[in-house]
Write a structure and sequence with these properties.
296 residues, alpha/beta, Arc Repressor Mutant, subunit A, D-Maltodextrin-Binding Protein, domain 2, 3 domains, 13 helices, 11 strands
Amino acid sequence: MDLSIFDDVLVLLEEGNMSRAAQRRNITQPAFSRRIQSFEHWLGRPIVKRAANRVDIEPALSENTTELQALAGHIQAFRQRIAGYEPGRSTVTVAAQHSLIVSIFPDFAAGARAEHQGVDFRLRAANHNDCISLFLSGEASLLMCYERDGGAPMPFDDSIVRATWGRDRLVPVVGGPLRFALSPKGVAPPDTPMIRYPPGTFFAEMLAGASTSYSSHTGAIFAESAFTVGIKEIVLMGFALAWLPMSLVYSEVQSGALLVCNGDTETLPLRISLFARPTDSVSMQLCGLRKSVFGT
């Protein structure tokens, strides 16, 4: 059996629709349906109920999604280890948010290389939710992501090991000519344009649930984006105010190219967390690395 069928089934579980799942897998719907039937034949029972215009996923499959994700992940990791086998070396696939890849990962990698000289990295940069999906599906063996410091941890079960690598904070910053519009106390005028994060994204949810001026902002919305690295460049040009991780803008704040608004008092503390599975010894060792950054 073609083991990529496991990925077909996982996509079907995510989409809940044959047509959309087939489109994501870049094959025709009849071909995708045949692959699902092949999986059913291997499994020994149907996993979907087929009707004229819809399919319903059987509870026997949907209630075992986590086990299927783990199985698919183990298979992919096994294939990668065999294909790239080199005695004394290991490749760790890291899923991380874009801002962490730019600001935190280089320092993390330097510490990892100092402790484990035979480790290489494969980076998968994505939004918060997509990073979690990459980790749970087994496409990444190490997850590096933000959590709200002091908030509820992500609801992973006991099969996942978590560690705190360091801390960060989300701060409102302005650049360019907007720096000169701040009050003597560093407060931005109410009509200052702002860049928003799309609804449902991690930073949008964190800011919406906090006592900050983000939710009560009355100025124009210059743009909406979840790409923090691009947002920083827009803010440096002086087009708008934006909330960004301090680790991402630390150098610019130190040089004065960016100014933190509201007297540096309106911030949202974040935790930089690492997640791995106990079965992956190298990723587990990397979870033991610690460094507190930008936490004050």
